[in-house]
């Protein structure tokens, strides 16, 4: 199939068409030309329009440099043959020079451009009055400086595009990692728990006629196991949604109550409306992870959650009266996950553990969401 003709690539929008308004100036000077100068001027001007289109069409290819060199040569011919004021067409070439990402090519063509733009002024220097030179000088300097500004603007646009692409890639990686983590948790925790419930259910079926008392004990064990499974499911759901500090306290209270662990909540209980949602979510997930560890590993009968406002943020302490960790025990993945979450909000984790229990302290700073001092 034949490709549809395009005057300019669609990705540039109306930008190329707006620049064509400035072609009215050379048309005015061509209108006043006569004889051979007129034929040369019209021919070269048509060539200039062709180079203008081709520079958009060949952007990023090796042909771009050839068309740019030809355009600068055309501007030089028009400035020498038709009128010295034709050198203002150099603004078109200055724009395209700024498109170079290669520093060597950029400097090479900028130097060539400076020479080309200087020749018409030098050749006709005697014909210019002082006022005309004073008028041309600022435009001449702007032409030489503008490629730097255009190049900086394009570099920034490319950097922003790469940053957006990187952020999108990071989001995809986070989603993928979260799915894998949930899959691992389901496999490692729920799979084992459900297998245990199945085995105990089969045992209850066998014991219900032979040893009813033992069957009742096993049934109660199934109940405790299923409650633990329910807590694990709730934890997975909590990890997938944003949760506030107040909600986390309520969930922790319910979790510990189900495990027959007495919970005491002290300190500044809120509200925490000035804490950003992301910070609340990360801190809440760490608090719930700590409470889960109390239920699963501590063997505690009592637990304490203390919330405190510090001079630069918030501090949450989770304490239990369990057996603690021995010197030979290594911190598990739960503590590592808490540290990683707190790292995302510039927070920190401290832990002390002995025979009298374990103490976890989460600290994270608060960043003002609005300028202070009324500025």
Automatic annotation (TrEMBL):
Q: Which reaction(s) does the protein catalyse, per the Swiss-Prot or TrEMBL entry?
A: ATP + protein L-histidine = ADP + protein N-phospho-L-histidine
Q: Which UniProt keywords apply?
A: Coiled coil, Kinase, Membrane, Transferase, Transmembrane, Transmembrane helix, Two-component regulatory system
Please provide, in alphabetical order, the Gene Ontology terms of the cellular component aspect for this entry. Answer: membrane
Ranges in a coiled coil: 156-183
Q: Which SUPFAM superfamilies match?
A: ATPase domain of HSP90 chaperone/DNA topoisomerase II/histidine kinase
- Cite the DesK/YvfT N-terminal domain residue spans from the record: 3-147
* Domain spans labelled Histidine kinase/HSP90-like ATPase: 286-366
Q: Which Gene3D superfamilies match?
A: 1.20.5.1930, Histidine kinase-like ATPase, C-terminal domain
User: Where exactly are the transmembrane stretches of this chain?
Assistant: 12-31, 38-56, 68-97, 109-126, 132-150
Q: Where's the Signal transduction histidine kinase subgroup 3 dimerisation and phosphoacceptor domain?
A: 178-241
One GO molecular-function entry:
protein dimerization activity
Q: What is its EC number?
A: 2.7.13.3
Top-level EC class: transferase
Q: Which PANTHER family match?
A: NITRATE/NITRITE SENSOR PROTEIN NARX-RELATED, SENSOR HISTIDINE KINASE DESK
Q: What is the name of the protein in this document?
A: histidine kinase
Q: Which organism is it from?
A: Paenibacillus illinoisensis
Its ancestry begins with: Bacteria, Bacillati, Bacillota, Bacilli, Bacillales
